Amino acid sequence: MTTCILFFRGVNVEGHNKLPMDDLKAMFGALGIPGAVTHKQSGNVAVRCTRQQAGSLGNRIRAAVQERLGFEPTVLVLKIQELEHAVAANPFREAARDPKSLHLWFLATEPAEPNLAKLEQLKSDSERFELDRKVFYLHTPAGFGQSRLAEEVEKCLGVEATARNWRTVTGVLEMGWSLS
Fold it and tell me: pTM to 2 decimals?
């Protein structure tokens, strides 16, 4: 058995794509994966599953949400070791003291031709970023909502992604550890 972390993109945001966590847990149970644990109402889930189940888990749960609730969310599936690596590799350790200023984008694939020069042009003087294979780190001391760079990350990297702040990332990691 392995612990997988699932990040759902664009659910429960401003009343759109409502995905009640109790319904989501029931969907995992119906897929033969009982015991899913969720983090708040944010679309962050930890489950224990076989390696075979892990390979198709994103597609299976996306189809289940489509069938039951009528929309198809983007779902990124990481093994807990990948999330542990992302936390350990944080290049902005001091930023973790202000967890709302540090965001990690989890990327569906490693970008083939990321436009880092464009991101460099967009960043403010106080912002810093780093790309580490399938994780993009962004430190925004002036606030994430003020960042022009944050709005363009996915476009400039050319891959599907979903962002979480540091507090959420570490909370989801702890949630995953609780299953191990």
Answer: 0.93
